[in-house]
Give the backbone structure.
Amino acid sequence: MYTKEEIFKAISTVIDPEVGFNLVEMGLIYDASSDDEGNVKVTMTLSTKACPLHQMILQWVKEAVEKLPDVKEVDIEVVWEPEWNISMADDNVKKALGA
Amino acid sequence: MMKISQDFAPPFKLIAPFFIIGGFFYILATLAVFLVHAQDLVYTSPVVISFTHLFLLGFVMMTIFGAMAQLVPVVLEVGHFGVELFYAIWTLLLIGTLLMVFGFLYSPALLPYGGMVVLISMMIFVGEIFLTIKKVKKLNLVMSSVLISNTFLFFGIIFGLLMALSYAGTISLDISQMLRAHVYSVIGGYIGITIMGLSIVLVPMFTLSHSFSLTPLRISITLMSMGVASVIGSALFDVEFLEYLGYFLSFLSLPFYFYIIYIIYKTRPRKENDIYAISMMFAYSAMLAAFFLAIVYFALHKEVFLLASAWVFFFGFFGFMITGHIYKIIPFLVWFERFSPLVGKQKIPMLVDMVPQRSSQAQFVFSTVGVVLVTFAILTKSETLLHGGASFLLFGALAFVRSMLYMINFK
């Protein structure tokens, strides 16, 4: 069973190629949990609903989490509520985007 | 807001020729500016018509067709009806445009042939897009804009062909009326509505904006569609009232479009001024300037203001709108095809790494100075300013093509 922080750390290897920061730094990963059977659930959003890499980013997140030992299933839920905004990103991202 | 999927996107080798050929036509269009005489500038001169077709057909339409080949299936979330048809589309559009430009400059007898080849190219494009849209069960606003714009393109090319036949003496028509219908269908109806519809997908995507109402865009597209239909009606039925109603409705649509773009920019999280952002700022400033010059034309009835307005609208608005988006679209397409399979396996570049900073900035600086100089050259009828402006434009176009080839060949 993994903690939220451990799953977030695994997902932090996924970089948004447009912005150049990882999804955790961008504040796109809202929540994560796992059970004793190795099932992981990730709740996340995307910076824009019109993201052309929508499916690909989900696949990258899935693959990143699956690299953790003993993970069997990864369930990713994409939510639009609350909608992502720049205040959710960390300071490095805000600075890079000029926010 | 629509969901976007890359699942149905065509391969980049199918899209790349549209952008590369479009870039070379951009250079040719700047060379055509050298042929223009500022002293006796009229929109019916063969050189001006040649420039217009090099720029609008060769650069604007070629690039938009390439972008649409990529974006239509992505936005509609269905595969193309016949994706291989795009190989024929760019080939025919290339041949037809060259024939038409050569025809305008040297041999009017070539015009019907060039017009027919362009017509076939565009008919294939329109037919392909219609058959692709037919697969969609429910249309959203962006899809509707694609449908409306392609319907206007269909009529625009029919009017263009009739004009070409008339130029060649095959049929007898009032060319000035047909010209109005042709120009309005293609520029307002196709290019205008396409830019309106697609920019509401692309601009928020690149600026990370969301949570804005699409109502102003809906109003804008409706007004522009009614305006274009009204101008076409005025040309076909010779009703002067419809012409002015059409102009009024078209002008009225622009503030609504500008308003939604303003809202997107005002609320954008991504505030860095990269080459895309400054290109967009210049493009929308040019749109406002063209709007102002058109109002001056209607107030004073001096043709130089109409020519200056059209120039600023073409090279300032359309030109920078397209070149700006190229700096986002090409890196994305190349990255998607070449580098996305390597994610997690090796270090790969970010999209921003794929844009050549110096040549993209050189393109922006040279092209903006060129646009401004040529605008003043048109207004003051100065030959010196015109050739100076054309020189800046040429260097800008060369830098643009250099940037484009760098991004396409990025390894």
User: Anything to note?
Assistant: Residues 382 and 396 of chain B are 21 Å apart (CA to CA). Residues 275-337+347-410 of chain B form one domain.
